[in-house]
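To: structure desk
From: M.T.
Subject: fold request, one chain
Message: Could you run this one when you get a chance? Sequence is below, nothing fancy, just the single chain.
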Amino acid sequence: MKRFLSLLAVAILAGIFTLGAYKMFLEPDTIVNQSETTPNLIPTNYNFTNTSANTIAASDIDFTVAAEKTVNAVVHVKQYGISRTPRNLMEFFRNGGSQERTIQGAGSGVIITEDGYIVTNNHVIAGASDLEVTLNNNKSYKAKVVGTSPQSDIALIKIDTDNKLSYIPFGDSNSAKIGEWVLAVGNPFNLTSTVTAGIISAKSRDLNERDDNIQSFIQTDAAINPGNSGGALVNTKGELIGINTAITSQTGSYVGYAFAVPSNNARKIVEDIIEFGDVQRGILGITGGTINPKAIEAYDISTSQGVFVASVADDSGAKKAGLKVGDVIKEIDGLPIRKFADLTGYVNSKRPKDIISVKVLRKDKELTLPVTLSKYVIQNYNIADVGVEVTNPPKDYLKKFDLDHGVVISKALSARMQRYNLEGLIISEIDGKKVKTVLEVKEIIDSKYPDEDITISLVDRNGDKKEFVFQN
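Reply: Done. Structure tokens follow.
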């Protein structure tokens, strides 16, 4: 009996140890709900300090509202050109031959008024002899070019219709924020409008800081592919905040980097073209750049962000306002200026004689200076395909050649052209069109199709006129 009780006690103790070991090491954890309600999940991008309406989670945004407001206002733009087919070598060298009407390219456009004004990219319509616009309802119209800004890659075209058209109102691109949801709306390949969603990845992007064309793009990760150029970048309210213009890609297709001209700049260009016939470009009258280690050392700068002033032009608004070499521009009209593209992007949305408030840092002292913008006047232009630089003629210079129009060759750009001693000669016509200013030369060259030949009428020192054809 004692032996039985001893064995029973050992068995009970063994069972207790076995059960304890199982509970401790083998049994899975049990989740006990203390409430019947589903627990709240906090997304990793939740902003604990900002509770405004703009911080709605992506799943709560109704993209259909913006899409419905915009798809019918984005059109397909098709451009036609005239190509020549030479029948013999003589016609080939004289740029002659039979003419054929061919499709040269296509893209998208954005209707901005109910009576048919449309914004698109300049590269979509450049060199076109005819334009055709197809609406989202598949109705097609002939379009005419009202004006262009090749530097900004913006063009304004117009269609005539008795019907009131759907259009997209301009939004304020300066108010757009990094991380804000946007839609890219395009009408590629003569399809009905397509919509993609993304966020604003960056602002004031300059894709090539080494060239003379200072850009200030909005960068987005909304998918934009060939055929979407000239389409709309809109916010969730359905307001136009950009004109989709370019992608950065090694394959030619979208890889996550797309760029749009800010709506404030596009709107200013459109209004200038309608009111003045061309773009009224205002400038501060300085040279400089984004702060870098060399500038910090050269000008004894105590800040790491802003635009340093390297020179101030005489008779400019900057000179009259008191800007000096070594100043650091920190703000314009309350807008932070961190790099040169911030400055140019904002100034390009203004006109000559507009007054802007410029906050500068001068030797650790902040100053706010009212600057009246000057009008930009182009003085020199490189005709790259010809290999020469031209400038506006000095007063009475053309009388020596018995001319009332023309521009002066200021220098040759290539070793080949330098052999001909062209400096001082006159280019009187380009492609049969008389030119009086460098700006007119630029407009003619910018309007040409990239592979199109250029015909130059050159007046030599004896006053003799000769024509030369430069083939691309």
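Reply (cont.): The chain has a mean pLDDT of 83. Let me know if you need anything else for the meeting.
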